[in-house]
Write a structure and sequence with these properties.
The complex is a heterodimer of chains A (433) and B (202).
Chain A lengths: L16 H6 L4 H7 L3 H11 L11 H7 L9 E6 L8 H8 L1 H15 L3 E6 L4 H16 L4 E4 L4 E9 L9 H8 L23 E5 H13 L1 H6 L8 E8 L5 E6 L4 H8 L9 E5 L19 H6 L8 E6 L4 H15 L5 H18 L5 H14 L7 H15 L1 H10 L20
Parallel strand pairs in A: 1-2, 1-5, 2-4, 6-9
Antiparallel strand pairs in A: 3-4, 6-7, 8-9
Chain B lengths: L30 H11 L11 H12 L4 H11 L3 H10 L11 E6 L2 H4 L3 H12 L5 E2 L5 E6 L11 E3 L2 E3 L7 H11 L17
Parallel strand pairs in B: 1-3
Antiparallel strand pairs in B: 1-4, 2-3, 4-5
Helix pairs in contact in B: 1-2, 2-3, 3-4, 6-7
The chains are: A alpha/beta (433), B alpha+beta (202).
């Protein structure tokens, strides 16, 4: 499949309004504005577009659920808080193709009857935000955003809102809290944002890549779009390949493509020709796959069938020098740091898991700690308001399931049995009471 | 009496309430920043004025270098909320500094994809080159070193953020040279494999 969303990212001026207009820019919006809003929703539903943020929820359904019969305003909120470890596709889209996102926001606003879209971008992406702001100003100046868009009588504003360093803000209700000027902590659901979202008004929260697909659907039609991928997994997909590969990067492909093709053909295989040990296929929150499980469709359904999740399509590749206890410890440090603290099992449990994993990695673990890890992880997963709890439990559980022998060797030999030259050389800081 | 064993928390949880540092100096926005604030506040409906807290704090940090206790009170005043509302936000988000930091805040991403490509070694090298360990500032106040979580550019690992700029693909063996370069050229020293290039991510 030829790239669609990233077709022009190598062109020096691909991010400018002029370039975008020369390549059918804002033509999808023109089509959408000629259609009744409900027809736009039906079209996106027919395309089968699944949310690209991680959960894979059908975007058209999300828009349909937004309460239309209300005196309150409605909002589109674009989730540009890309923070899932191993994920960097929205970064590329916003940096190189910002007008595609604006056009997607505007079409989404028309579909649900909103007059305002907020793009919530993570604080660390200031250089990307600067490009967005500059291009948004250009779009305003040329009448593609604001009052009477393209002279077609449609009013819509887009505002960019900068986050300030919180992974949890990527969860849609926590994002809304953060956008309202509070801590990024998730809300109890229901009510879902479609009923009571931003400022208590009906809201649809969509990922950058999801919204960037919408203009393409309007331009080329639902059938064409759906046929790009396997059944129910239509459209182009951006894959982020990182870790121990020769060529880390964003690769756009049909979801008919296999994980093996993405890792070995697109990303050039494992760096230095080393053996592959394992792959995390969908960002740090999902179960690992082993080398013999890679000949599967890299689609939402294909990866789920293999026992993991496509998630945010952040494919992290691990070679044979990777210690799985170290890996779990690294990710638990991440989850410990990012847990928002609202739910006790997650706030306390991530610290417990981190302490246990550090102890084993230092060579001070006991065999009974392995059962304790499973027990603590089991007390987090499914017991929290948002999916963070499940995500935080996964690295420990999945490594223990597939590499129990490695854990046992750490305990038996009282040391890390898989040292690597790319890890720290000084002793890890030991924390005492 | 407690039924669970003592747990070592080491560092405060981000959800813990912490007051920002009180530098004892009054704080008000410059006229320019006050004007910027009013401009930003217009993006939100009247019932959503608190949405401007995050942008308001960024303006504080740009003016002062960190967020002081008096600045929190000033922000509460211009927003029309309580100081507790603002403190709540300041202590939760990692990008607001609640005490003075060095001229260059060097943030090394330590999460898995960067770690797989040598981020732990980068931190070691920078620790010896900058004269401070993680979460510290060197005695001259030039550098603050912080280990941070995933910055969202794992194809450019290992990634280091200096103030608001990025340095990409920093091999551990190049870390000392970057530190020296920062000392002499400041943020002009930043760059890297994909920085500002059209082939980003490819």
């Amino acid at each position: 499949m030829d790239p669609i969303l990233t077709k022009f990212v190598r062109e020096p001026n691909s991010y400018t309004l002029d370039f975008y207009l020369q390549h059918e820019g804002y033509e999808g919006l023109r089509k959408a504005l000629a259609m009744p809003p409900n027809d736009v929703i039906e079209l996106v539903k027919a395309s089968g577009l699944k949310g690209r943020g991680g959960a894979g929820f059908p975007a058209g359904m999300k828009w349909q659920f937004v309460v239309k019969d209300t005196p309150k305003p409605k909002y589109i909120v674009c989730n540009a808080d890309e923070s899932e470890p191993g994920t960097f596709k929205d970064h590329l889209l916003m940096e190189r193709n910002p007008h595609l996102l604006f056009e997607g926001c505007l079409i989404a606003c028309h579909a649900i009857g909103a007059k305002v879209a907020y793009i919530y971008i993570r604080g660390e992406f200031l250089h990307v935000q600067n490009i967005l702001e500059q291009q948004l100003a250009a779009a305003y100046a040329k009448g593609f955003v604001g009052r009477n868009v393209m002279g077609l009588g449609f009013d819509c504003d887009i505002f960019i809102h900068r986050g300030a360093g919180a992974y949890e803000a990527g969860e849609e209700t926590a994002l809304l809290e953060s956008l309202e000027g509070k801590r990024a902590q998730p809300r109890l659901k229901p009510p879902f944002p479609a009923v009571s979202g931003l400022y208590g008004a009906p809201t649809a929260v969509n990922n950058v890549e999801t919204l960037s697909n919408v203009p393409v659907i309007l331009l080329r039609g639902a059938e064409w779009y759906a046929a790009l991928g396997p059944e129910k997994n239509g459209g182009p997909k951006l894959y982020c390949v990182s870790g121990h590969v020769a060529k880390p990067g964003v690769y756009e492909a049909s979801m008919k493509t296999t994980l093996r093709e993405l890792i070995f053909d697109a990303a050039g295989g494992v760096r230095d020709g080393r053996p592959l040990k394992a792959v995390i296929p969908g960002g740090s929150s999902v179960p690992i796959l082993l080398p013999h499980q890679l000949d599967i469709e890299a689609s939402f359904d294909g990866v789920a069938k293999a026992g993991s999740l496509l998630g945010s399509a952040g494919i992290i590749v691990l070679d044979d020098t990777t210690c799985m206890v170290w890996l779990a410890e690294n990710l638990l440090r991440f989850y410990r740091h990012e847990s928002c603290g609202k739910c006790t099992p997650c706030r306390e449990g991530t610290q417990w898991l981190l302490n246990l994993l550090e102890k084993i990695e230092r060579g001070e673990g006991e065999m009974k700690d392995l059962a304790l890890i499973e027990s603590v992880a089991g007390l987090i997963a499914g017991k929290t308001l948002c999916a963070f709890g499940d995500a935080a439990a996964t690295p420990a559980l999945t490594t223990l399931k597939h590499f129990r022998g490695e854990y046992e060797a750490h305990v038996r030999e009282a040391r890390c049995t898989v040292p690597a030259p790319w890890r720290r050389r000084s002793a890890a800081p030991v924390h005492s009471h | 009496m407690t039924f669970h064993p003592k747990i070592d928390y080491r560092e405060l949880h981000r959800s813990a309430r912490q007051l920002p540092y009180d530098d004892g100096k009054p704080f008000t926005y410059t006229d320019e920043n006050r004007r910027r604030f009013e401009e930003i506040a217009k993006r939100y409906p009247p019932e959503g004025r608190k949405s401007a807290i995050l942008p308001a704090l960024y303006l504080v940090q740009r003016q002062l270098g960190f967020v002081s206790l008096n600045a929190v009170h000033h922000v509460a005043e211009v927003i029309g909320c309580t100081p507790a509302d603002v403190e709540d936000v300041v202590s939760f988000y990692t990008m607001f500094y609640t005490k003075p930091v060095g001229q260059y805040v060097v943030q090394v991403c330590r999460t898995l994809p960067c770690a797989l490509r040598g981020a732990e070694r980068v931190t070691e090298e920078l620790t010896s080159a900058l004269g401070t360990g993680p979460n510290g500032t060197d005695p001259t106040g030039t550098f603050t070193l912080i280990e941070v979580e995933c910055l969202g550019a794992c194809d450019r690992a290992p990634l280091v953020m200096v103030n608001d700029g990025w340095h990409e693909c920093l091999a551990p063996e190049d870390a000392k040279a970057l530190a020296a370069d920062l000392r002499t050229r400041g943020e002009a020293a930043l760059g890297g494999c994909h920085h500002g290039k059209a082939d980003a991510g490819k």
